[in-house]
């Protein structure tokens, strides 16, 4: 029997009405860089010492709740293929028990009103109790299964909304989160600019391990300020700096959509709107974990398998329980 997965901080429910907004983008001290690492979503650029994100304040994209709901239902059927069968049998048992209850009630009434059949009343009452118990049991099982189904579809719909949010790879490339499925494990780091900067500094000792595991960070400053990332430029640290820049290369665009999504996650998890949080995703794009405060970089390195080498592919499903 399926049950609802406990996953804090989940995703924004799509709007039902068409929404059009004026798209206004502003470039905030963006600094390109050059990397020698071969990645399908990283382009070569000239190197500088610091970088800040490009931010877009609104989107003119129209949401499609019908498409998202359809996709979520299909994914739900794939994840729990026998749920519909179980629910069908639960309904069949409820109908059978309900019919038996109706027959038993009529027989009991007849036995109570007919003195010649009074001796049959205890046996009929026993059967009636069994029927009522069976109906109650299968009704409870159906209710629990249906609740789990609705919760799973809602969670998958929110995850689908996350996959439609946009990221900027460089000055010329804007991609949806879904395009990184199977390529990277995203870690969304949301909070004030000072929180983002401190998270950047804390990730430095684990840079190589995070890059080997396909981790990419999405820094989202909630206070409207732009965090500045300082990279050490020298011949000795050239390769390490390239990995640092690759790790922190993504920037969210359409801030309104990201803000709405993030606020929805905090509301669902009962977290205050001003709390800094992190959300880590699996390779398949599903939410792996989340929490308040700085991302546990050391735990990511210890728990996640590398995306290349002898373990590539074999351990792709060991990103963690959803």
From TrEMBL:
Keyword Nucleotide-binding: no
Keywords, alphabetical: Membrane, Transmembrane, Transmembrane helix
TM region positions: 88-112, 124-143
Pfam families named in the record: DUF3493
Domain of life: Eukaryota
PANTHER family on file: LOW PSII ACCUMULATION-LIKE PROTEIN (PTHR35498:SF1), PROTEIN LOW PSII ACCUMULATION 1, CHLOROPLASTIC (PTHR35498)
The protein's name in its UniProt record: Protein LOW PSII ACCUMULATION 1, chloroplastic
